[in-house]
Amino acid sequence: MTEKKELEASSVEEEPRIGVYVCHCGLNIAGSVDCEAVAKFAATLPHVVLAQDNRYTCSDQGQEGIKKDIKERKLNRVVVASCSPRLHEPTFRKACEDAGLNKYLFEMANIREHCSWVHLYDRASGTEKAKDLVKMAVAKAALLEPAEEIEVPINRKALVIGGGVAGIQAALDLADTGYKVYLVEKEPSIGGMMARIDKTFPTMDCSICILAPKMSDVGHHPNIELLANSEVAEVKGHIGNFTAKVLRKPRYVTKDCSACGECIKVCPIVAPNEFDVGLATRHAIYTPFAQAVPATYIIDMNLCLNKEGVVVCDKCMKACERNAIKYEAKPETVELEVGTIVVATGADVFDPSVLPNYGYGKFMNVITSLEFERLINAGGPSHGHLLRPSDMQIPKRVTFIQCVGSRSDKNGKLYCSNVCCMNTIKDSLLIKEHWPDTEIYVFYVDIRAYGKGFEDLYQRARKAGVKFIRGLPAEIKEDKRTRNLWLFGENTLQNELYKVNVDMAILSVGLEARKDSEVIQRLLTLSRNQDGFFLEAHPKLRPVDAATGGIFFAGCAEGPKDIKDSVTQASAAAARAGILMAKGKVTVEAITPITFSDKCTACGLCTKVCPYNAITLNKDLKRVSIIEAACGGCGTCAAECPFGALTQSHFTDKQILAQVDAVTECDADKKVVAFCCNWCSYAGADFAGVSRMQYPPNVRIIRTMCSGRVSPKFVERAFARGAAAVMVTGCHLGDCHYINANYQTQKRVEKLWKKMEQNGLRKDRLQLLWASAAEGEKFANKAREMKGIVESVTSEEIEKARKVFEKALKND
Amino acid sequence: MIMPERIKHEPLDSKDAKRPKAEIHLIKDQCKGCGYCIEFCPKKVFEESTEINARGVHPPKVVDEDKCILCDFCTTVCPDFAVFVVERKDSEDKKT
User: Fold this and answer.
1) Which of A272, A313, A387 has the CB atom closest to B3's CB atom?
2) Range 32-51 of B in CB contact (< 8 A) with A
3) Contact yes or no for B12 and A278 at CB 8 A
4) A391-407 per-position pLDDT tens digit
5) Range of the domain at A33
6) Minimal Cα–Cα distance from B67 to chain A, Å?
7) pTM here?
8) A619 falls within a domain
9) A800 and A663 within one domain
10) Is the residue at A87 inside a domain?
11) Can you name the residues that pair with A283 across neighbouring β-strands?
């Protein structure tokens, strides 16, 4: 831990020499922005010694050009106007570093996602906006300071949350690499969904036969500590140095258990077994399935008679030859120190009882695909005989209904669950294999057989006589006497109605985000998409990384996927975590606070708003000190300080005010100054760009790491300089990348609203928007709404705001 | 049987699940009416009866013998050795 040195008066004494590069990005930018005109305009800006436009600035050639200019033209600042800094800032920073320029002397103007792609059909306005964006970047660049990054050591231990096939694979890969792994599983045994499935597609391997050896490897691996029947209760710290508290719920059976099963014979309590989706019974003392790891039995204390320390029944204890029963066991909390975390918490299956037209839960012979897996499984309740629940007979006519809970926002979730089509095809072949004369109907929307070997399997099913009918049944009705089912619907390929009589219907249920995802999200400060699955740092190029450093995703926690994809992703997550741990250290971005102790009054406000407790107050010395390794870099302390005694490195007050000034230099009364946080709203605006959502071109976005960085004086300055409107945007409350810093944003905006109201200003000129990285449409809609507000603001109102916030024009 | 919320079908083997059948014996005149058996039975098999025994108190009566799971806790808590439970023989089971 280091204490930040105070900023020296002027660390860069030489006059700024800025080089500006305007990228065409092929036609992505040049298609709707006149890049040549933007470059010409840039050349007229103060401190700019060189301005040019190129086809692809990110190409090797483009980068070489920058390096050459830094050396030959003695550039000491570089501005690239191209795509989002979320995409290529690292690329250009690297190029600057290669040429000997500190990477913090580089700045980007986002004229693709925030300009050309959202103003495709308005070249004139697009070009004007691009000029403004470049002007803002140049204004900031002139004030950039070089900075050094500090190094944080990485603890070479990993925590894997979730023991399904993805968690198992990630844990094994990490452990085999040589790192200590803690695998935490909520259920009594690892194995997850895959352990319940009978066969896997497209190879028709026996699921548990290929999984059980891996489970057993986990149990025996010297580098893996398995914490089953346990839950992560708290996670603190940051990349490389997390402290996780894990609640180990008691099994009430010690490791001395030899899994002989004598206790089961005497336990008087009988209940449905969750592992078999309730299709088989278990006792209060039980093991979920034969291959469970750990094999140690467990007592379900919700069912056992021995509650609150009173031993009512000791039958299992008497039956246990190894004295492994311990009714008095207590839960314990273990504290784990880890460097990286893999989130492999999996998914839930859709509950079709919310769809009344299919009668699940009402008609005995309507079952889900997961229940089917247990029925067709030789280790399941019917020993592999497909029995229909009403009369325990093998059905002659069976139907599968696809997309139950998927691809419909009315009846479930809008997305495709990826696995159900192939699962049904596999299941239909399994029935044909055992009982070739069974008539099978599959009602589908589309058959999605996209993977390796999938189409072959589909064709095999068709050849085996499985009838595929397009068009889901509208309703299922039950024959009260025979318990047979009537399906009514429309065959949309032949435009005719059908009425089919079957013995049993299997609902091919989709996957959905786990109910408890919210807990993990909160513990690890992650983001989720609108479907509830965890959001990766970049959908294409960082598909297994979380936006929070040191955390990785594997399996269905990130989105529905089959076993192969889960395993692939798990290995990728393990490799990504392994890279961090192999290096043993990570550099922290130099965006930590800078203190000016002469202005500090030791009021302690900054220490209260810091989400990481990274600021300590020394009242005697009248100053604060920063623990940089703990600092997340949100900058909310800098926004809170009323005395200007704190600012954020690389996002200093001066730099941001310079950007505000650049926007408001001309036509301020037609513009919206928008502050966007790097993780949610800026990414959301990027997403609007990538999706080509068109919105009015009067919005100018200033990027901060967190909306908590937005100091009231930035907003006041914008109004004082005549801006028509201001937007402060950030992550949804509760989703803040910096734990809770955006609550400060809300507080500050509310204060500003109050001030505006008191001074007779229209409140709607200052807008607060919470938009996630997935909510591009929300951002675009807000921008459209802002257009109306801007148009309605009169010149008198602008003047009034100028006067009210006059004080903000002064620079401290 | 307690059915968890998401479980919609009765277990296929619920009829075959091994449930010992109990035969509860009350020695009514030995009871002093303390009510421990009624209070502590985990399956709530007993209830106070209206009859009066030799000691002038209301002894318990068996409400539902099928609910008994033979845990023997009533025998353990009874201060007067007035109750004991044995497993009903299979042959008798078939008769009923």
Assistant:
1) A272
2) 40, 42
3) no
4) 999 999 999 999 999 99
5) 17-141
6) 10
7) 0.78
8) no
9) yes
10) yes
11) A270
